[in-house]
């Protein structure tokens, strides 16, 4: 009886992702079709769609995992809507990664950091070596952000596969974004589309990992 009061029956595994699927497809399609007005009004809806999915699919909606997940997504949403002021958006995304790092380390970790996570440190050194001379006064904020991002991805390797892949794809997304901003001559094809595609994939994978963890935890109770 007690368990039935605090837990809700989650919908089927795909249903909570319908909001992000719909909004995400519209947003990505608008980028490909060069519809800036549609891109503008759909972007602020992306993270709320994932929050809806996370809360909708959670068996216990007030659990620390869900609360911290909602916090990280909310900070990411603030990053999305303020990224036009680059440093402001960077700070919100930095805070989002810190929230994820705390969540992964304290609530989701099931093993030690995987040996291959050293690749994140190596990649950060390579990326900063290439981009550093182009960042100017933003060098310190970029170093701080990259360090937290790669730390988050490394800690994500301690969690289930969904979360681990989410952390990895996040590094890919932000690497494309950084290269596109600081090396405009690189000429990355469809850069805006690739940035948002990998960003949405990363966030959705992480949310899927949180729901997978929560359902397994409740099933063991």
Describe it for me?
There is one protein chain. With 221 residues, the chain is mainly alpha-helical. The chain has one domain (62-220). Helices cover 78% and strands 0% of the residues. It has nine helices and no strands. Helix 4 runs antiparallel to helix 9 and helix 6 packs antiparallel against helix 7.
Query: Structural class, please?
Result: mainly alpha
User: What is the helix tally?
Assistant: 9
* Rg, Cα atoms, Å: 18 Å
Strand content: under 5%
Average pLDDT, rounded to a whole number, is 93
Q: Tell me the span between the first and last alpha carbons.
A: 13 Å
- Tell me about the largest β-sheet: none
Concise synopsis of the structure shown:
The chain has about 220 residues and is an all-alpha fold. Helix content is about 80%, strand content about 0%.
Show the helix and strand layout.
Elements lengths: L1 H5 L11 H15 L3 H22 L6 H19 L3 H23 L9 H18 L3 H18 L4 H22 L8 H30 L1
Helix pairs in contact: 2-3, 2-9, 3-4, 3-9, 4-5, 4-9, 5-7, 6-7, 6-8, 7-8, 8-9
Record keyword descriptors for this entry.
221 residues, 9 helices, 78% helix
């Amino acid at each position: 009886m007690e368990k039935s009061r605090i837990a809700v029956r989650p919908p089927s595994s795909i249903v909570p992702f319908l909001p992000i699927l719909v909004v995400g497809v519209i947003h990505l399609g608008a980028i490909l079709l060069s519809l800036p007005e549609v891109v503008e009004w759909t972007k602020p809806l992306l993270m709320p769609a994932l929050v809806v999915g996370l809360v909708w699919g959670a068996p216990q909606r007030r659990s620390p995992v869900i609360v911290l997940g909602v916090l990280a997504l909310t900070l990411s949403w603030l990053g999305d809507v303020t990224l036009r002021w680059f440093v402001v958006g960077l700070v919100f995304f930095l805070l989002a990664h810190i929230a994820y790092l705390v969540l992964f380390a304290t609530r989701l970790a099931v093993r030690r950091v995987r040996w291959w996570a050293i690749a994140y440190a190596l990649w950060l050194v390579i990326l900063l070596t290439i981009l550093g001379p182009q960042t100017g006064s933003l060098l310190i904020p970029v170093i701080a952000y990259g360090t937290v991002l790669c730390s988050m991805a490394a800690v994500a390797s301690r969690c289930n596969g969904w979360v681990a892949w989410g952390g990895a794809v996040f590094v890919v997304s932000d690497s494309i974004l950084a290269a596109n901003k600081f090396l405009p001559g690189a000429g990355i094809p469809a850069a805006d589309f690739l940035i948002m595609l990998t960003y949405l994939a990363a966030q959705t994978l992480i949310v899927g990992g949180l729901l997978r963890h929560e359902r397994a935890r409740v099933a063991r109770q």
